[in-house]
Amino acid sequence: xxxxxxxxxxxxxxxxxxxxxxxxxxxxxxxxxxxxxxxxxxxxxxxxxxxxxxxxxxxxxxxxxxxxxxxxxxxxxxxxxxxxxxxxxxxxxxxxxxxxxxxxxxxxxxxxxxxxxxxxxxxxxxxxxxxxxxxxxxxxxxxxxxxxxxxxxxxxxxxxxxxxxxxxxxxxxxxxxxxxxxxxxxxxxxxxxxxxxxxxxxxxxxxxxxxxxxxxxxxxxxxxxxxxxxxxxxxxxxxxxxxxxxxxxxxxxxxxxxxxxxxxxxxxxxxxxxxxxxxxxxxxxxxxxxxxxxxxxxxxxxxxxxxxxxxxxxxxxxxxxxxxxxxxxxxxxxxxxxxxxxxxxxxxxxxxxxxxxxxxxxxxxxxxxxxxxxxxxxxxxxxxxxxxxxxxxxxxxxxxxxxxxxxxxxxxxxxxxxxxxxxxxxxxxxxxxxxxxxxxxxxxxxxxxxxxxxxxxxxxxxxxxxxxxxxxxxxxxxxxxxxxxxxxxxxxxxxxxxxxxxxxxxxxxxxxxxxxxxxxxxxxxxxxxxxxxxxxxxxxxxxxxxxxxxxxxxxxxxxxxxxxxxxxxxxxxxxxxxxxxxxxxxxxxxxxxxxxxxxxxxxxxxxxxxxxxxxxxxxxxxxxxxxxxxxxxxxxxxxxxxxxxxxxxxxxxxxxxx
Length: 658
Known about the structure:
eight-stranded antiparallel β-sheet
């Protein structure tokens, strides 16, 4: 039967456009994306192709803002984005997977495609990314002697299971299957890792091929030096390099050519800024320097990914750390073209002007910076100390052992654990309480009989003096400040990872409480009873860790509210903040450089009171009276840091972080 009905007399020729309209996809050549070694380029559907991409991490941006950020990237002239998939973000507990809400990676990929952006996917298993443990789940450390990123059977078994879950989800989104993904990374900067295990790389290659097929372009990324590429590259994985502004572009690509004599030139991480650490100045790289180097890359015909195009936020406990132990702050602004909150910067438009010289920029207006609102001061009331609230906070109950156990042994991956013991003898004169093997990972708040006596900190403060009678209760609240994400020390155990001594004696008889603070805050358990102040009459240099709570309202009759904002904690020292049960992250204005925390509008409400919960670990500026936090419309990420600070590494010398 004819498509136009029985008895149709129309000639064949006019039918061809209709047939192509109805069956065009099936009649056209299949979609393809491939390496052209002879032409030194990528080919997309048979045509020579060069990508100009930008990095965006969906895990650092609320889902409601994905479209806004992606549109701004598209309007800058990018034709692709690059993103990581953090394993630990989706499998926090072994065997329990989460791909909904802010973790809905499939929706993120679909959104990118709808906007017109291709995707360079970096699914791990290891990602670095200044993310907790480089994206590897902490439960891997239950096998104490596991060798991560190697052929260790325990590690391989976990990787195979995870990739068996993830990669089949990703396969429909490959370009040749109709999706946006043009290339997939198999390992990340492996040449910077000590293992140099080629059998591991071969296993990953076979694993990815088994799930994704033979057509997809698989690649690796390493520093632009032969010493990195020696262990980071392997046959059948296309080797790319990374380097930042100011580097010798010719020399960097010559290094890639040692691993890949033919094929496209690729800088997988061209740094638009750099990461921060607590206690160091906020990193910044001038727009002029970035633009000059970007132009040098593009004029060679190379492919480039701008890392980061938007940094975002390490909400909750997701920040990583570098060795020697230096944790990253909550903000991952990165001095990127789009700020942490997605705001347009001078660097955005300078980069756009460079791209315009090589690639057609989409027509139309760039989406504007989202408005910010200063909601003002919120009075905070004291609730309970950690010690007072143990019944509410420790859902699993106490664990007793002769010697302290690590977070992993207690099945606590993030946050805080309270370790409790007693003084075995009277300390009438100051007696050193010590972590002689640097076993406090990472910061401990010590109290004796409810009185704060000091802080122990990894690599910095290993001993403090205590006094007290025999049998006095000693509480040590240990904070996990983020696992090392780069280099040989990523197997980063947390808690009291070695014994504590009092004088010459090893302390024994420990009771440990895993604290589910996020759960307690989200359920409102801590607010049920306000604490009657028992502060000492004279100011003390430290207080035991204490919860504070306050509320504020946002009128529902004002158009466009709620809006994004920033929370500032004037004269507060260090702690954690939750708003309406959402864990914003850590604050530490006493050390800097970050002072304000980004508060996205989607966690605020105009129909109910907004509640603010603060866990102040050192000392709130409250005394016996009220104190406040403040919501402002201006971020502060570059506050002055201690004058004794000496930067230990340059912006782009990753080898110094080993």
